[in-house]
Structures are given as C-alpha cells and as structure tokens.
Design a protein that fits this description.
Glycosyltransferase family 4 protein, alpha/beta, 6-stranded parallel β-sheet, Rossmann fold, glycosyltransferase activity, 2 domains, about 350 residues, Glyco_trans_1
Length: about 350
C-alpha cells in the first residue's frame, strides 16, 4: 500500500510528535508499505492566521497514494477519499484550553468567528475520514465532549525500546523532553531550594531562546546552579537513553498532557520511577502513586519531598522502577500491531 503520513511542523521544534511522525514512516516501511512523510509549516500566532492555515490545508491536493494518515491540526483537513486520522491533538486553544483560560483566541466577535471556523473545519475533517484513532483516552474524551465524534484509542509504541535497558542509578533526577512553560521544568528548579540533597538534570531542546534564558535565569535566582545541569539541546537517541538509564528517577510534569508521554514510557522501559503531578493529564493513565512513581500537587515543596524521598531511599526507587517496567509490559504496545490497525 502507498501511504502518505501527514502532519504539521514548526521549524526547529522537535518533540514527541515529531518522533512519532518519523517512526511511523519508518515502521510502515518495515511492514512492507511504500510510505512517505509530509509536514505542513504551521503557526498559531496570531489567531487571525488560523483560518488561513486551515484554508491552505483544504486546498492541498495529494495524488498517487492509497491511504492518507493524518496526525495533527490542520493537516488532517487535507482532503482524500481514503483518510485515517491518528489524532495527537486538535487545536486545543479552541477547546479545553479555551475553557481553562489559556487560549490565544480573543473573546471578541472576530474571535468567536475564528472559533466557529476551527470547530466546523474539525467536524468536516472527522466526517470525511474512514476511521478516527487518538493517542490517548483523554484525547478521545475531548473529541466526544467538544465535537460529538467517537474514536478508538491507539497508543503510540515506544521508539527504540532496546536502548532503554536501565542500569545503576547515578543519583540524579532527570527531566527530559521539550523545554517550555507547559512542560514546567521551572517547577523542578524551584523545588531544589527545598531539597538540598537532590541533583537535577534537565535535558531537552527549548522551544525558543526565551525558554532557555528563563530557565537559566531561574536557576541562578533560586541559588541552585550547582545542583542543576541544563543540557538544553536536542539529544541523539543513544545519548538520551544513557541519561535515562543512569537516572535515579525521571520527573515529567506537563500540564494536561494528551498521552502517556515518551518521557514516561522511556523511564518505565528503563525501570526508572516517574515523578509527576496531579494535573498532568494522560501521564496519570500509567503512573501510580507509591507504586511505580510519585504523583503530587504541582507545588515546589511537594515535588521537593517526592524527589528527596526517592534520593534518600534508592531501594524504594528501584522497586517503583521495576513496577513501571511491568506497567509498560502490560500495556503491550508494539509497532506491527499499530501499523496493522492504521492500514486496516
């Protein structure tokens, strides 16, 4: 089957969605399909431009393919008669983030027109699709709540699981993934003030220079520069895996995450416990407090206590980590099964 994988991209921003895109194309080929990937440049600011972004997607014409697999707004609006959606997320600022007061769409007559256009465009894309999968139960719940469409959950498998073998902990807490306000690495830096025996490594690419500057400035202001390593760049997979394998625990604190998160999956594959917070969304589908990690309120002091507790008791950390590895095995996620469902 000739398969085109379609998504969006922001230049020089590389996170979990981009990893999924690359490995989806790779694994389609491994399963014997002719697969190509295409990304549409996308910007969400200013909100006025969102209508133009959608119109551009609707005007794109693809040819010489059998199946179109689309992942993100507004790429899933590209028309094709045999289109399957694997929705990583919609434009959340028109949905749950709007309800949470975290939208860039203004509460004005024009803003309401933009909002209506996004929802109408989504509905059209969903109606014309052969099948709708999502990456997590929370994404499916949003689709049902806001758009009235049913979908099936198809969790992304871990990429390169053979790299995350685990190993002797070197005593640090690790925070991986993109660095921005929504991932809340700043909370971990603030927590260090209340946990003098904890060392933190933040390893991942900042979305913008301002994100990097803010985190470095915060470490200086909190007086914890000697206990935090900021390796703010896109790390090759092998290098990332070495950091995960050597960590005592992995901290992942996204706000209302759509999925389990690759950071979570990589940690559990390496038998490392995960520290997260009560409003981290899909991460909570697999992390269990005091079983395979810690779940605490998004507060620096609570995080400090969680981190310090694992640092002080490495045996407990190892026990939580083994339970996390078991949770990954129970999830039964693999690429051949995933590809089979996407091309069915």
């Amino acid at each position: 089957m000739k398969v085109l994988v379609l998504s969006t991209m922001v230049p020089f921003v590389h996170g979990g969605a981009e990893e999924l895109f690359d490995h989806l194309v790779l694994n389609l080929r491994r399963q014997g399909h002719d697969a190509e990937g295409m990304k549409l440049p996308f910007t969400w600011d200013p909100a006025e431009g969102l209508i133009e972004e959608m119109l551009i997607a609707r005007q794109i014409r693809v040819t010489n393919i059998d199946r179109l697999i689309a992942l993100k707004f507004p790429a899933y609006m590209v028309p094709w008669h045999d289109k399957v959606l694997w929705v990583l997320h919609q434009y959340r600022q028109a949905y749950d983030l709007l309800d949470a007061g975290q939208s860039n769409i203004p509460d004005t007559p024009r803003g309401r027109e933009i909002l209506a256009a996004i929802r109408a465009g989504d509905a059209q894309a969903f109606r014309e699709s052969r099948r709708i999968h999502t990456n997590a139960p929370i994404t499916s719940r949003r689709l049902k709540q806001y758009n009235g469409f049913d979908s099936s959950v198809l969790r992304p498998p871990l990429n390169d699981p053979e790299l995350f073998t685990g190993g002797e902990a070197e005593g640090y807490i690790l925070a991986t993934g993109r660095v921005n306000a929504g991932k809340r690495q700043a909370l971990l830096v603030r927590a260090l003030r209340h946990a003098p025996d904890v060392r933190l490594v933040v390893a991942g690419p900042p979305d913008t220079p301002a994100d990097e500057e803010a985190l470095r400035r915060l470490a200086a202001e909190e007086g914890v520069e000697d206990r935090v390593t900021l390796d703010l760049r896109f790390l090759p997979r092998a290098e990332l895996a070495r950091l995960v394998n050597g960590a005592l625990a992995v901290a992942y604190l996204p706000y209302d995450e759509d999925s389990l998160g690759y950071c979570t999956m990589e940690a559990f594959q390496a038998a490392k416990p995960v520290i997260t917070v009560t409003d981290s969304g899909g991460v909570l589908d697999i992390v269990r407090d005091r079983d395979n990690g810690r779940i605490v309120p998004p507060d620096p002091q609570d995080l400090a206590e969680a981190m310090a507790g694992l640092v002080a008791d490495p045996a407990l950390s190892r026990r939580y980590g083994r339970a996390g590895r078991g949770a990954m095995e129970d999830a039964g996620l693999d690429w051949p099964t995933t590809i089979e469902r996407l091309v069915a």
